[in-house]
């Protein structure tokens, strides 16, 4: 019987492409009709010096207000343009090189590809649907469809960022959406199919990241301390949205995929610590845009967030190295760069709410605890978190989110105090007597952990049933560079 020819394109990749084409066609069909029927966007004059909007009634969602284009500030816009570029640099080349150096030589291209494909695929999904789910009017858990295909996203500012174009605010948030799924790839490195990784990352963005972004930063979101959240938690730049969600999801992925062949039996040392140092250095620099840009203006708060970011990274690097030495080892280069990344993670939710000295303390705590989680805890529990995505981002994100409720200071951010207590001088941290805020931080952290873990498990289980998650033993032995991409990272033929 003659064999029926089959496509050489992986099923998962064909499914993703087909889904994207369908979404584009549907949006193209319904989009124009929606635009015709749409009511004119409301406008109002604003005072650029005014603080964030105060908490409102989450039971009745008002439309996202589009402000007067005359309110755009050129200095704020320039700073946010630079910050947007810095955050994109964190994924490629920052995270790409950091992760690529940590894998074995036969998997270096596959690691680079994972970060780079996220820059492409997540950008398209963000424009088609993701931005709308995260930031348009909806309910406390997810946004609606007002901004599908970027409808209504124009040159005028919106209430999320009153002095920069709406398009720039959208682009800045897109860079966060790009790097977060890429972080998860660190736990599944060297053994996950490329097609499965791409489908998972795309689905996870829409079903996990976008709802969390809405809960924390969207108008009326469950955790939004400034725009009507019922559990007002502080997250300046993504401790819950980015780091806890990706770190917990990474742990679930590592457990479901199982260990790499030979894990715990033969050494699996990084093939190029040099690449990882370069990548970590770029992450450190890019994080100034990640945290400093979250002030959304070229002002004192942006400068403050930049300083707290730097000091936390420095203290965490020293903390990790000190823990290495106290354990009887040597101060390693990989240890010091890992510690710096931990400090950046830990301070992210607190960068615009705490002081430089407290930021250093948070970084120091994070450096020591995350060293333990990436070494002893992983050994005790027996999971194979290939590049310590959970040990750094999951554990570090939890530490930072909780400690924000301890070390937040009203004098640093009076707008936060006003939103939470009704007074610009009200206490917002546990050290000043506000235990309620610490409780809110713990609630937001716990709910994020549960939501990310359950959703990730369901998504991975479905993908595993459809196309499988893991490459074959032979493909893993050959390396993902050759088995998944047909290329080699280094060509030694002439030798």
Report on this model:
- By secondary structure, the protein is an all-alpha fold.
- The protein has one domain (72-480): Ammonium transporter AmtB like domains (Ammonium transporter fold, Orthogonal Bundle).
- It has 15 helices and no strands.
- The chain has helices spanning 11-37, 74-102, 108-135, 166-184, 194-217, 239-257, 273-292, 300-326, 333-347, 356-381, 389-407, 414-421, 435-466, 473-478, 480-485.
- The longest helix is centred in the C-terminal third of the chain and has 32 residues, at 435-466.
- It starts with 10 loop residues before the first helix and ends in a 10-residue tail after the last helix.
List the uncertain runs: 1-13, 20-60
The total of helices stands at 15
Mean pLDDT: 89
Number of domains: 1
Judged by helices, strands and strand pairing, the structural class is mainly alpha
Helical amount among residues, as a percent range? Answer: 55-70%
Q: What is the rounded distance between the termini?
A: 47 Å
CATH topology: Ammonium transporter fold
The major beta sheet can be summarized as: none
CATH C-level: Mainly Alpha
Describe the global form: globular
- Strand-residue fraction? under 5%
Q: Helix-strand pattern, N to C?
A: HHHHHHHHHHHHHHH
Q: How would you name the CATH homologous superfamily? A: Ammonium transporter AmtB like domains
The radius of gyration is 22 Å
Assign the CATH architecture. Answer: Orthogonal Bundle
Keywords summarizing the entry:
disordered N terminus, 62% helix, Ammonium transporter fold, 495 residues, 0% strand, mainly alpha
